[in-house]
Amino acid sequence: MKNFIRPIATTFAFLGFGMVHAQSIDGSWTISNYHGDAIFVEPETLIGRQQIIQGGFAEGPLYACDFAGQYMTYTSYSRKEFLDVKEFSIVHDIVSSLEDANTIFVNRLNCSGNGEQGLSGTLYPFVTSIDAMGHDLSVAFVIFDGGVIELSR
Question: What is the pTM of this model?
Answer without folding.
Answer: 0.81
